[in-house]
Specification:
11% strand, globular, alpha+beta, 3-stranded antiparallel beta sheet, Beta-lactamase, 45% helix, 8 strands, 13 helices, single chain, binds glutamic acid
Amino acid sequence: MDYKAILEKVYNQVSKQEDKGALASYIPELARVDPLQFAVHVSNISGDSFGLGDIQTKFSIQSMAKVLSFCLAYKTLGESIWKRLGVEPSGNAFNSLVQLENDQGIPRNPFINAGAIVIADILISQFEDPSQALLDFIRSLSPNQDIAFSNTIFESEKNHGFRNIALCNFIKSFNNLDNEPEEVLDFYFKLCSLEMSCTQLSGVYLFLANNGKALHNNQTIISKSQSKRINALMQTCGFYDESGEFAFKVGLPGKSGVGGGIIAIHPNQYAIAVWSPKLNKKGNSFKGMLFLEQFTTASELSIF
Ligand code: GLU
């Protein structure tokens, strides 16, 4: 497949389409981003990569980071992790307190906020310096070492994170948190503050297209079975309450974030990162969704 030509055609097509989305506004930093930026970058398992637009610009990857913290926790704990959280799509808002009450403090999956908070708690118990351990883990996934947290985003998340504070305390009340809520929240907010460019993202997530192995050094990051399971979770739970729609229109596992980024994986083929900051009503990048829908349609390749 001449994916470069297809990518270029679809990029130009979507660039011209009206963006009906809106910037995330729950923290001032995200509302200040230039809304016209648009980037796509693909890395494939043959070692080839290609991108268009603002591919070197770093942005707030937000909930896309939940996949990476989950991978590190899953790699460390193995299957015993499922005592602490489930694998079902939430069918509810990603920050729902009601669902957590019904589920007795066991989050539905690792990609809703409650699930990512439990994962943060697990990593704090496993590592002396969990932030550094997470950074080291992420830096081991691709040759790119220039990946860091943003202190401004971290502070802002912390100052505006009232619902996350509520969720974390709620989990503690159900005895599904081993550490103190303040410490867990600090690490959770740090996770949300990670910044990467589309070029970096497609390289970092490529191991999920490569059966759990990092392509640059052939190191096993997670097992083949864990990689399959994480792709399954992204497929069913990666797009808030729009995961069904993404599967329906795009047909690839993926994960989005409120910074307007989306990573999608074609197992045994490629990882593709798209970024356009304005979000649709469900909190996913408006143009990012359009781009991936048109890209998988034009390339006639999806997992289905
Ligand atoms: N920092 C956001 C929150 O916890 C993450 C939102 C997202 O990307 O889903 O609410």
